[in-house]
């Protein structure tokens, strides 16, 4: 069995807690209850996919973790980070959106430089780090290019390099590959897995895709809508190596089936108003 309910004593249990959501609810000013009592413990080294029906609050949860929105009630704890005056872990979080959000007037190099520039680091002392990060996403030869000269997949790679350039502990990715074609998406899935392993970064990845979540994750958190909260939390225990052989394996097929069943359950659990 490739998939199981996240066990109480999984190998991750012994790991450091990176961030914990405690009983978080979010009501927007128009009265929409986006999240109700959502709790989630994220441990170092996990690759967590947040999966769920449209509108179940995946992006809201991710944005609250990133400090881009405050919870209406409940709390976010960063047990192993230094917290700034806004209650956020300074520099420990990278964010990748579905839209790469690059500055069109700036080169690839300058786009990746931005987070370091905002920290007061000079271009000269940042150059080596920037080039390393561009190389790690296969774009070392495109440092002088402008975003308009790149494909959609390459622009997303720049966005990932920009998020990783500050060496975050936690990488938050909100449907980053949803707009890309399937082959590009699969290549980027492999790139993200490589970065995850190389840098030991913890990842929370929002996706609509059962297949993508089953390929990438060490843990899949399926959310339900109305109200948005965790429906089920599953560990994907097999295999350690995710590659083309895994994509056509019985283990992958079974994982996709189990995740798909959980998603159907989550959709069925939504309260109809
Ligand atoms: N700024 C906002 N103001 C009011 N309502 C909002 C706001 N942002 C999100 N919502 C609502 O909150 C609910 C959760 O939205 P959210 O975008 O978090 O869901 P999601 O699971 O990420 O959706 P999708 O999969 O379609 O991207 C939805 O009903 C949405 O319409």
From TrEMBL:
<keyword id="KW-0067">ATP-binding</keyword>
<dbReference type="InterPro" id="IPR017871">
    <property type="entry name" value="ABC_transporter-like_CS"/>
</dbReference>
<dbReference type="InterPro" id="IPR003593">
    <property type="entry name" value="AAA+_ATPase"/>
</dbReference>
<comment type="similarity">
    <text>Belongs to the ABC transporter superfamily.</text>
</comment>
<dbReference type="InterPro" id="IPR050166">
    <property type="entry name" value="ABC_transporter_ATP-bind"/>
</dbReference>
<keyword id="KW-0813">Transport</keyword>
<dbReference type="InterPro" id="IPR003439">
    <property type="entry name" value="ABC_transporter-like_ATP-bd"/>
</dbReference>
<dbReference type="GO" id="GO:0016887">
    <property type="term" value="F:ATP hydrolysis activity"/>
</dbReference>
<dbReference type="InterPro" id="IPR027417">
    <property type="entry name" value="P-loop_NTPase"/>
</dbReference>
<dbReference type="Pfam" id="PF00005">
    <property type="entry name" value="ABC_tran"/>
</dbReference>
<feature type="domain" description="ABC transporter">
    <location>
        <begin position="19"/>
        <end position="252"/>
    </location>
</feature>
<protein>
    <submittedName>
        <fullName>ABC transporter ATP-binding protein</fullName>
    </submittedName>
</protein>
<keyword id="KW-0547">Nucleotide-binding</keyword>
<dbReference type="GO" id="GO:0005524">
    <property type="term" value="F:ATP binding"/>
</dbReference>
């Amino acid at each position: 069995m490739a998939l199981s309910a996240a066990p109480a004593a999984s190998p991750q249990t012994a790991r450091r807690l990176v961030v914990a959501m405690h009983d978080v609810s979010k009501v927007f000013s128009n009265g929409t209850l986006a999240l109700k009592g959502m709790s989630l413990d994220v441990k170092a080294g996990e690759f967590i996919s947040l999966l769920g029906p449209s509108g179940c609050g995946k992006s809201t949860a991710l944005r609250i973790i990133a400090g881009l929105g405050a919870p209406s009630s409940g709390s976010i704890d960063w047990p192993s980070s230094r917290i700034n005056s806004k209650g956020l872990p300074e520099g420990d979080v990278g964010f990748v959106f579905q839209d790469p959000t690059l500055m069109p007037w700036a080169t690839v190099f300058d786009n990746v430089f931005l987070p370091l520039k905002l920290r007061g680091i000079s271009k000269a002392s940042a150059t080596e780090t920037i080039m390393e990060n561009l190389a790690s996403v296969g774009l070392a030869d495109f440092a002088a290019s402008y975003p308009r000269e790149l494909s959609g997949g390459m622009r997303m790679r720049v966005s990932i390099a920009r998020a990783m350039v500050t060496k975050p502990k936690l990488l938050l990715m909100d449907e980053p590959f949803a707009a890309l074609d399937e082959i590009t998406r699969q290549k980027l899935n492999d790139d993200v897995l490589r970065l995850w392993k190389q840098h030991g970064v913890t990842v929370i990845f929002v996706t609509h895709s059962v297949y993508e979540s089953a390929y990438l994750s060490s843990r899949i958190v399926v959310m339900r809508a109305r109200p948005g909260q965790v429906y089920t939390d599953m560990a994907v225990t097999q295999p350690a190596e995710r590659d083309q052989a895994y994509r056509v394996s019985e283990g992958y097929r079974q994982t996709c089936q189990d995740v798909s069943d959980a998603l159907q359950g989550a959709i069925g659990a939504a309260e109809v108003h």
